[in-house]
Amino acid sequence: MTALFPAVLLASLAPSAPPFETQFVQVAPQARPEGDWRRAPGATRAVVLIQGLKVHPLSKDNVARAALRDWQHPGSGLVKTLARDADVYAFAYAQDVPLDEIAEATSLRAGARRLHDLGYREVVVVGYSAGGVVARQLVEDNPGLGVTKVIQVCAPNAGSGWAKLEGVRSNQKPFLRSLTKEDRRGSLRARRDVRVPEGVQFVCVVGTLAVTGDGVVSCRSQWSEDLQAQGIPAVAWPVDHLSAVRASSSAERLAELVRSPQPRWTQAQVAVARKTLLLEGPSGWLFRKRERVDERGAVP
Length: 300
Description:
The chain is of the alpha/beta class. 37% of the residues lie in helices and 14% in strands. It has helices spanning 4-13, 60-63, 77-82, 99-103, 106-117, 130-141, 173-177, 181-190, 219-222, 225-229, 248-259, 267-277, 282-296, and strands spanning 22-28, 45-50, 87-93, 122-128, 149-153, 201-207, 234-237. Strands 1-3-2-4-5-6-7 form a 7-stranded mixed sheet, with helices on both faces. The protein is globular.
């Protein structure tokens, strides 16, 4: 016991890993820093925008910096559209740690809880790409946090082959690795007993412009089997991955999903959606072709 004491003492004195950088700010109706949030008079809904991957091939410093994306800024089309009937917030994070660590960020949990304490009756989290997985794990691991709805947009629930992209800075590789099919599926297996809380509405926006997905994430990853088993609804949009939160049509669609109820599906509804969204059978291919004609006026 005595011999172990110096080692235990040294371990307790050793510096812990520095926390990664985050930024949780208000962007509408006025831009305000984290310590100065204000609920607009009469506002009953808050929307939180969580960003996804941004590749930094040139600067390790940028990887470690929490910066808002263009679509999260106060002047973006998405923020302006959502601000018609909600106060809007944005969460940014450094990308030099694995995704699971970001989902466990103290600042994210504390911020969501604070929005509930400010008096919003609805706290809606919109998670784009990797941010959708962050949003999912946030509510799964914190069912009493006060979040009332999650909207995943093109989220790699079961990973993406693009996460094996080369040419990124070394400190971004842990984050990218955590988005690979192997790592995400391993995470799903480890969390197989964790469910989306029944009291949280949840919907997957599935980008389908590339027929089998959005060009980055497949439909089967965006609407993974574990979510289907829970009756999580899915909405197919004929958009590519980058346009999903930037196109004006996407902003209007997201605003409608924020406003409208998103009840769980029956397994019969899931089965129908699998045929059209996951292209199970010839009727699915015909549906997808018609969907793209309706959106673009012609099949690309």
